[in-house]
Amino acid sequence: MPKQVVRVVAGVVERDGRYLITQRRETAVLPLQWEFPGGKVEQGEKDEDALQRELRERLDADFVIGRKIGEKHHTYDGYEVVLALYAASLVPGGKMMRAKRVRDFRWVASSEFGQYQFPDADQRTMDQLLGIKR
Prior knowledge:
By secondary structure, the protein is an alpha+beta fold. It has one domain: Nucleoside Triphosphate Pyrophosphohydrolase. 18% of the residues lie in helices and 40% in strands. Strands 1, 2, 3, 4, 5, 6 and 7 form a 7-stranded mixed β-sheet that branches. Strand 1 and strand 2 form a beta hairpin. The protein is globular, with a radius of gyration of 14 Å.
């Protein structure tokens, strides 16, 4: 039986040397862990459209989706995750973000990532694609 492949997109939103990270809700898979904001791509949806939708659903704000930074594949028991990271920025003059489908969000420097618990696969992907050395 072939493994299920789940495509996920995430936005790397940088502002003044800090990155936007979001905290998963208590009821989510891997509860209370931090990640770049994003989510699953629905069937027939383009990555950029999925990321725009996910960011709006989670943070109630509009973003400009930029270039693709990279893509990583992670294999788990019974399924595979394809994670694509895209540069993104808040729409200038848009409404303020609010935690809508996330527990919290913060702007942090890459040097502060170690203070937050990220899912292992997300941590390895972030480190590799952003060139962060630990």
